[in-house]
Write a sequence for this structure.
């Protein structure tokens, strides 16, 4: 299923038919001031908040749902050597696959250029069967000499 179709399905689904975990997580990350993404069990970015939009340069309403490979092609993440990280190296993969929190440190392609960040993934699961993760991330201050 393409990202446009998934977004249409999520938006077309009446609120009461969406997984409760998805509704609550989306509401939570909508009101926090730290950059956050909502990722489903297939690794799709199904929502990101205003703080994340400020870093990447466009709001969710313009970009919509993205497959993991689409997100990676646009924004990364990248290692210290500048090479793309594999999904297995990301905290979100641990959060979704192993249902446990995970942490990472890497670079992303932000609107302002390459940005060093730290990120944490918190797994989501519940009785409705929804599994995914909330990923929060924050830029690191530039180091001396940057």
């Amino acid at each position: 299923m393409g990202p446009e179709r998934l977004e249409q399905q999520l938006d077309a689904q009446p609120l009461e038919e969406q997984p409760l975990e998805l509704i609550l997580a989306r509401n939570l990350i909508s009101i926090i001031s730290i950059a956050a993404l909502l990722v489903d069990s297939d690794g799709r970015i199904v929502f990101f908040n205003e703080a994340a939009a400020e870093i990447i340069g466009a709001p969710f309403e313009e970009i919509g749902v993205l497959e993991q490979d689409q997100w990676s092609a646009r924004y990364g993440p990248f290692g210290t050597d500048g090479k793309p990280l594999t999904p297995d190296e990301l905290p979100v993969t641990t959060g979704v696959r192993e249902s446990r929190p995970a942490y990472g440190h890497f670079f992303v392609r932000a609107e302002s250029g390459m940005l060093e960040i730290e990120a944490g993934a918190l797994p989501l699961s519940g009785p409705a069967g929804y599994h995914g993760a909330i990923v929060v991330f924050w830029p690191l201050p530039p180091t001396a000499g940057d």
